[in-house]
Recover the amino acids of this structure.
């Protein structure tokens, strides 16, 4: 898959992983693992990019004596998810065209 497309898909997957509740890095990887393979070393640059794009915010909280970063989706992040759903409809039409059998 083209790197730019995969990058965009991973961004949306991360947003989807936190759309219902705040989460932290390891948990996000765990939640995504049944659907897409992603490592923590791939995840953290995505989280920083989404934060700088104002699609998520970060708060720090203590957990078992250590500080943990929790990520929260913003309205801009939710808008991106909604836009992706619309884009996906178009991608599915393209897929159907490309994979249709010749007659």
């Amino acid at each position: 898959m083209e790197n730019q497309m995969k990058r965009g898909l991973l961004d949306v997957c991360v947003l989807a992983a936190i759309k219902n509740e705040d989460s932290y890095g390891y948990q996000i990887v765990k939640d995504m693992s049944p659907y897409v393979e992603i490592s923590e070393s791939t995840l953290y640059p995505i989280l920083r990019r989404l934060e700088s794009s104002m699609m998520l915010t970060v708060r720090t909280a203590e957990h078992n004596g250590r500080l943990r970063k929790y990520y929260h989706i913003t309205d801009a992040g939710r808008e991106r998810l909604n836009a992706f759903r619309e884009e996906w409809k178009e991608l599915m039409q393209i897929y159907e065209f490309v994979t249709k059998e010749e007659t």
